[in-house]
Amino acid sequence: METVAASSWKQLLLNALESNSSVKHSLFFQLATIGSNGKPSNRTVGFQENSDNPYQHRQPKSKGSSFFTLYLFWVVDLYWIDELKQCPFAEICWYFADSWEQFRINGSVDIIDGSCRDPMKLQQRERAWFSSSPKSRLQYLGPIPGLPLLGEIAFKEPSLDPSTGPVDAFCLLVLDPDQVDYLNLKSNERLNFTSRQNINGEKLWTSQRINP
Amino acid sequence: METVAASSWKQLLLNALESNSSVKHSLFFQLATIGSNGKPSNRTVGFQENSDNPYQHRQPKSKGSSFFTLYLFWVVDLYWIDELKQCPFAEICWYFADSWEQFRINGSVDIIDGSCRDPMKLQQRERAWFSSSPKSRLQYLGPIPGLPLLGEIAFKEPSLDPSTGPVDAFCLLVLDPDQVDYLNLKSNERLNFTSRQNINGEKLWTSQRINP
């Protein structure tokens, strides 16, 4: 086992995004959670391309630091939020079909909604809201996803002032990775990155080569 | 709610495969299960193109019949088989980036290995083995996936007679769908297909339009 910086698996991920940038599909991954019935649940999540956006990935605090958090946000399905509150664990599976690379990133999800008491997190939520396009913000005003469609009753096309802050239905979900399983089917290599917290609460990562 | 044939969601899936046939990525989906630690687990699974192969999808017994089973098989990770034995529930998430369609297919997984007592299932396993290429069969002879790599000890390149039947490590996994959630982001439509068994043990499917 080798002690490594979190940036090593992050770099692999950034390289994969770079080398698969022409493939539309590479901007989507699947996120598995556990449903309230105790069964697995799996959804597609879109990754936004703008790498300058701090909500998708934040640079390590300092060179060599083990700190790394992957930020994600997406349309909220209220059932799903309830499920995540009951069981916050999740695993991303991100496959790059062009470079034959797979990342499995597991960790726990923090739900930041309007009722959150942490001013820093609320600010993150607000920034995430304003970094999304005014058009995509309208999704949070539509009928609740997953409920039966109400017959022929036309749903009034929502409108929203671009300066209006996050609406109640907008949640920011933040995944904090604990473990990353990287598989490269071209080179037939597999690496397992595992984290543990040191006494300062910082994450330390180790990596190990395992059988593919 | 409307009573429908299983073939209706199957047809949507076949149409999606057809309209996305030029996209390499459309032949991969992600399968979520629950790990032995109780946390979600997510893996990429490749779908084989040959639609005449009965192991990928079998036609309904007769027109209007509700019977439908999706057959899948892939490289076996022994840890995973143990996990599936503890919790056989799984959810496929299959996203077609070109046509903006997502299928979430959940059900339970039947594990057919060499110790199975059912001659029909053993025959299915054997057919699945011989329908895979001789080269891909060699994967089942490699070192156990997920275990630490044994330093510099070179692993002897395996060889196998093409007429040799399934090796011990080869398992056929069969997913029997219970529920299908279909989302079309272009038409902004979402359909939920749910099954229940009738007194003859046949699956009856109903569909309902839900909010996307």
TrEMBL record, chains A, B:
PANTHER family: PYRIDOXINE-5-PHOSPHATE OXIDASE, PYRIDOXINE_PYRIDOXAMINE 5'-PHOSPHATE OXIDASE 2. GO terms for molecular function: FMN binding; pyridoxamine phosphate oxidase activity. Pfam families: Pyridox_oxase_2 (PF12766). Residues 40-62 are annotated as: Disordered. Coiled coil: none annotated. Residues 7-112 form the Pyridoxamine 5'-phosphate oxidase Alr4036 family FMN-binding domain. Pathway: Cofactor metabolism; pyridoxal 5'-phosphate salvage; pyridoxal 5'-phosphate from pyridoxamine 5'-phosphate: step 1/1; Cofactor metabolism; pyridoxal 5'-phosphate salvage; pyridoxal 5'-phosphate from pyridoxine 5'-phosphate: step 1/1. Keywords: Flavoprotein, FMN, Oxidoreductase. This is pyridoxal 5'-phosphate synthase.
